[in-house]
Task: structure prediction
Amino acid sequence: MELKTIKQKRGIKMKNGLLGVLLSFFLLLSCTTKQEPVEITLPQETREAIEKAVPIKDYGFYALKSSYPRKAEDLKEWSLFVCGGSSPEMDIYVTISSLKQTKALLFKFSKSYFISQNMSGGNPEEPGGKETNTTLQVPGQDNIILPRESLFFGNEMTPEKLYTKCLKDVQANQKGLLLIKRTLGDKQKDLVELKFK
Result:
């Protein structure tokens, strides 16, 4: 009788131990599982303009999991941060993608971080060139001032270091959308991808 009681107690301890291991495993899994992309519906013409400006196969839109837009109307209160785009004007074409349909910019501000392969020397951590605000000539409309900032870095800058700079600005901004290479964005557990449909 006494032996049976000891065995029962051991069995309860083993079950409790196993339960604790399983619970820890599921908690760890929930923390590291990648969140499903957030879908935002845009007018077809706007979406097509974005897909023309951005190589969607290689680049994606990401936001902080703690703060991301829920619908298309939210975007006009957000800023776009293009981190190492395929061209220094990528942010312009994305921001004006909605002009024809809504006569309004898609984002309130854009910032581009571009690595120029033709530029070298100086401090690789600091931009070697900078542009602010762009005036757009739109047929049939008044000229539009596009609020933006474009930073040019030398070829010593790495995509990883550039991403770190971009992320700091997004975190400080709170309402910031990152446009970065998928090879970088998909690895980040604190980001959620946004897909336009």
Observations:
- Residues 38-196 form one domain.
- The chain has six helices and eight strands.
